[in-house]
């Protein structure tokens, strides 16, 4: 699929614990980081609604732009559902999703000092150019040569949205960069 990204650098003090839906979550501390995350997510919203986005990944890469691990959110939106969304049902499903996400840290790898991260959207087909697509650019992050190791984390199905979250690590037989 086609990939478009937004990029950021990792800073251990960039997030702080907050409560959301009566759960402890991590919230960006710096206004610029808050704006980046908010604009990335809200910029994708119309494309997710139209079913154009296949998956969204948060990719952690080393200093050479080689991915270390990827959190993949695979999305499916029921286009025939219309606007009849039961907010309470969706919130209940999202809450259980966030609980599982918060305890998935044990599955992750230790990240190097010069690590960076990016939000990457994989489109089923590229959207037409508009003000919503201006902030997104083709990614230059290197791809793994071998199929990754996949660790399922959580699936959520609450009409009209279904989400599967899984973690990807490079295959043990992945060739090392030269």
UniProtKB/TrEMBL annotation:
Residue ranges of domain HORMA in the record: 1-167
Matches recorded under PANTHER family: MITOTIC SPINDLE ASSEMBLY CHECKPOINT PROTEIN MAD2, MITOTIC SPINDLE ASSEMBLY CHECKPOINT PROTEIN MAD2B
This protein's GO CC annotations: zeta DNA polymerase complex
PROSITE patterns linked: HORMA
Official protein name in the record: HORMA domain-containing protein
SUPFAM superfamilies per UniProt: The spindle assembly checkpoint protein mad2 (SSF56019)
InterPro entries linked to this entry: HORMA_dom (IPR003511), HORMA_dom_sf (IPR036570), Mad2-like (IPR045091)
Organism for this UniProt entry: Dillenia turbinata
